[in-house]
Amino acid sequence: MNKIIFFWDSHLVRRGGVVDFLLNQCSEAWLSNNKGTKKIQSLVDILYEPEYWHRESWYISGSYTEGDNQELAVGSLFQKEPKFTATLEDINAKISSFSRGRKWVLFPWGGMHPFSAFGFLSADGDILEGVTSLYIHTDKSCSLISSYAFDSLNFTRSIRSILMGGYHVSAYPLWNIKGDDSKTLWMATDLVISDDFSVFDWWVPSGYELVEHLPAETSAQKGLNIYEISTEDSFRAMCYLSSQEPRTLVFLPSDTNSISLRRLLRKTESYSSSSDLISSDLISLEDILRDSEWFLGLDRDRIDYGYSFLVARDNKLLHRFSAASQSYDFRLIACF
After folding, report:
1. How far apart are CA 142 and CA 71, in angstroms?
2. What integer is the mean pLDDT of 66-81?
């Protein structure tokens, strides 16, 4: 059975540590990029490869699996620039070719910082355990995001989150496919909704109600307001609030438990500055899944890539969302 792990890492040295481990454990390793494929003997062989140290197209892999000596094209799934887009079908095809073609593969994944990550795929339990240990035991700044044992032909049936671009419009499909019987949803934001927004032609002055105010826990943070949204027009207007550059603009089910809600937002919204991005949603994925049926955060890169992050316990919701998004300015970037 194949298994894939995704890990978040801001340190080049840890990435090098994984490659060093693989070179010591395996009989051969290959670097593939847009220039071609070459065998590597040590970490020194790739230290000066620009495709490896920057966000370009590359992967490092082990020996061919038995009976398969087909070269695997680098392709565009690893070219992570701001306008990148893919489909779930693209991702399935690439992961399937990797799982059938090589004994293990290390590859860049995700988007731009703070959603830059790496993936590692293999069916070898000892190698998987070794790579995982490097990330969760030796450096607190490196964290395992998710891991899945999967059918080699349908990896995306295992995922629990998708990263997408498209700014506020990318969230629009959520209203009709959120998968529960409630006709409302909640929004958490540090903004205070008032008549001041009536100056914008996109504003809808009805269809929402303040439910709760969560005070800030430290002087470096802001308090959060929880609003209940009851109409699709109001929901779309609230999505447009991302243009006002809030620190927090998150949508959740309106039946989310109050204790779970506070615990979740404390985890995902507690960063104190734009540079404190180790609180990335990626390393909070398990917390999000524990505390909410689904979670959609807008403008989560807090820079200017317009990333949104959708998490759901029900994998079918992610597929419905992706299918419904074809009519909108939606760019699928990665899944975790």
Report:
1. 31
2. 59
- Which of 300, 190, 295, 212 lies closest to 253 in space, CA to CA? 295
What single-letter amino acid sits at 237? A
Q: The tokens 């909704």 sit on which residue?
A: 193
Q: Which helix (H) or strand (E) holds 109?
A: strand 104-110
For residue 126, give both structure tokens. 């000892």
pLDDT digit string, tens, across residues 157-171? 999 999 998 788 889
CA 84, CA 332: separation in Å to the nearest integer?
A: 8
HSE-up (13 A, CA, CB side) for residue 57: 13
Residue 214 tokens read as 């969560």
Q: In this structure, what DSSP letter does residue 283 have? A: G
Q: Which of 197, 173, 199 is CA-nearest to residue 185?
A: 173
**Tens of pLDDT along 256-311?**
999 999 999 988 887 554 444 445 788 889 999 999 999 999 988 877 778 899 99
What token pair was written down for 134?
Answer: 């490097």
